[in-house]
Amino acid sequence: MTGPESQEEIKQEIERTRERLGETVEELAAKADVKARAQAKAADVKAQAQAKAADAKAKAGELSGQVRRSGVVQRRWPLAVAAGVLVLGTVAVWRWRKK
Question: What contacts 30, CB < 8 A, 6 or more positions away?
Fold first, then answer.
């Protein structure tokens, strides 16, 4: 049973084991590299913070526009009421004098 086929099979098995062992060592080395993992996490957190800041800035712009629009309406409302009262008063005085 220790013929050429069995030796080839053993060599192939050893090669596969070496490849798996190499991959395992690389994975362990990546987990042990705390500095690289911390930098990656910091970059991720920074990207999330920038995205949230951009969203907040956009929402603030929308709210600012709404406040400005409502402020214009609020400033014009008393003017419209005063004009209406003036017109109604003029019509009332005109009718009263006409009688």
Answer: 36, 37
Q: What is Dmax (Cα atoms) for the chain?
A: 132
The domain spans of the chain are 1-32, 34-99
Tens-digit pLDDT profile for residues 32-63: 888 888 888 899 999 999 999 888 888 887 77
Global pTM value: 0.40
31 Cβ neighbours under 8 A, 6+ residues apart: 37
Structure-block tokens of residue 20: 């798996």
pLDDT at 16: 94
